[in-house]
Amino acid sequence: MRGDARTVLADLVDLVLPATCALCHRPGAPLCPGCRDAVERCLHDVPRPTVPSPPPPGMPSCWVSGEASGALRAVVTAYKDEGRRDLAEVLAPWFGQALRAAVGADGAARESLRGRGLLVVPVPGSPRARRRRGDVPLRPLVTAAAEGLAGRACVADVLVATRTTLDQSTLDAAERAANQAGATAVRERHRRAVEDGVCVVVDDLVTTGATLAEAARALREAGARVVLAAAIGATTRRSGGRPTLPHPCP
Ligand SMILES: [Zn+2]
Predict the structure, then answer these.
(1) Residue 246 Cα, ligand 1 centroid: separation in angstroms?
(2) In this predicted model, what pLDDT tens digit does every residue of 103-131 receive, in sequence order?
(3) Residue 1 is assigned to a structural domain of this protein
(4) How many angstroms separate the alpha carbon of residue 200 from the centre of ligand 1?
(5) Residue 30: inside a domain, yes or no?
(6) Would you say 153 and 118 are in contact if contact means Cβ atoms under 8 Å apart?
(7) Domain presence at residue 220
């Protein structure tokens, strides 16, 4: 059998019943011990607030569990785009930690959990990405994370994309902001829940913050009193906007 064909066959077997590491494809699913170590080196000891540089206007206060580079970014990509949904068990706790940190740091959010209830709002994926993947990979992670909040929290697809946007991965910070501007709205049927409420917008990884800032704008415009954000990881950037090297994180 030719090498290419063997690789394709191995990939097919992995899709049905992953037995190999999602990153290095050696035995050990979802991650072998070596790759798990590499990913854990991308994580902070405790979740931290993050501010993109430069921060987009209206960027909400945002908490993350790690550095979105190297192994951590590779795990998120494998989960979302390479069919490795078995990585949910790895990613969900990190999502949960960031969400708890965001809520714990804000008095209005803590009060909302005990009273009226907190809205956990996934960023709306593009219809094109939904068609390509066949599902919304962020959703089960968000649901698991919200279940870890002590109190009344509800995950709701409050936001909707109002127009087609370009693939963000090819754009710089200014282009991403322009690409996202006005691209999100609160669904009519959720307006009452948003009005005067506390919302935490969630995304997998934060790069320029343009997506979170646009989501926050739409929620505030619909009357949200407080908007926070949480993600698994964030890219650290210099003020010039160039990514820094991931140092201990491979
Ligand atoms: Zn591995």
Answers:
(1) 19
(2) 999 999 999 999 999 999 999 877 777 67
(3) no
(4) 33
(5) no
(6) yes
(7) yes
